[in-house]
Input
Amino acid sequence: MTNHDRDPAGNASTPAGDTDIVLEARGVTKHFPVRRTVGDLVGRRRRTVHAVDDVSLRLRRGSVTALVGESGSGKSTVARLLSQLYPLTEGEIRLGGTPVKAGRGRSFRAYVKQVQLIFQDPFASLNPVHTVRYHLTRSLKIHGKQATEAEACELLERVQLLPPLQYLDKFPHELSGGQRQRVAIARALGADPKVLLADEPVSMLDVSIRLGVLNLLRDLKERLHLAILYITHDIASARYFADTTLVMYAGRIVEGGDSETVTQQPAHPYTQLLIASAPDPDRVADEEDQEETGSGEPPSLISPPGGCRFHPRCPKAMERCRTELPPRFELDGGQWAACWLYEDRPVSTVVPGAPAKGDGAADTTGDGPAPSTTEVAAK
Ligand code: SF4
Output
């Protein structure tokens, strides 16, 4: 993406004629007021949680975008904002290039018909007193489809619960976690959506069945040309599953690019920390690596640190990092990072977790990685 793709505020703007962009967030911000306490009542200013600040991203047809970060980074809030479950504090959401504000009633139903959210917990997302048949036919009915047994069976076939008649009259407690999540996905497909927002869809499943559900989502992306947002704390799975990866820290997106580049050549010190923390049998991290990648806890979002929010944990922090918010700097192959290390210096040879040259900036020599075939979805 080039600079002319940005609006005057620096947010991503839709390139003319790019019809692959299905859902887009522009400068989306969400602040939650903190419940008043006695202290607030005697004159202290009302406090807010800065859950999401100035998030811009694009979801494209037939493509998976991973949004990766620790617990509390704001990634699930982004999913709820994109699904219009929460009103925005600032910013704009566009569906098919048109700004939308779903509200309630008919307009909300019209929106969720195209944008479906899959929750993390398949145990809680299905009503235990209803059968699979009820859940699927209800979804079909709500979205104006024929709610027949044949249609319900077709949904089960799409999520590879075969033979479908064997599952149709089961209650959620008679299914495994993986089967329940497949039913939740089938129910979402009942709307015939263009976008699936999958909020940690496999994190509550046994490790042995996670891959099957991710493979199912990938298959649906390819067969139905769905745009999928895959929210996860597991950056290793983003490399496997997503075309594009965005990394979120303390309410802001700090790095983006095609998944292979972001996971193999992370530029932002926080992404390097995530990679170093992810289990990898091929890598044995020593103490020096850990010092280079930083440690500590995410900050409070009630009073987030000034400047770069990662600076209290960043081993490469400079003086300006404490006061100046870094903008996004374009790197090679569509990768970008919001980090002062890359000011005016595109990188070509960033090694995961490795110390950079000089004051911490990566080497700018060489041709760098070949441009990705996957355009960065979020700028
Ligand atoms: Fe570290 Fe500064 Fe970059 Fe933030 S801007 S990640 S504190 S070097």
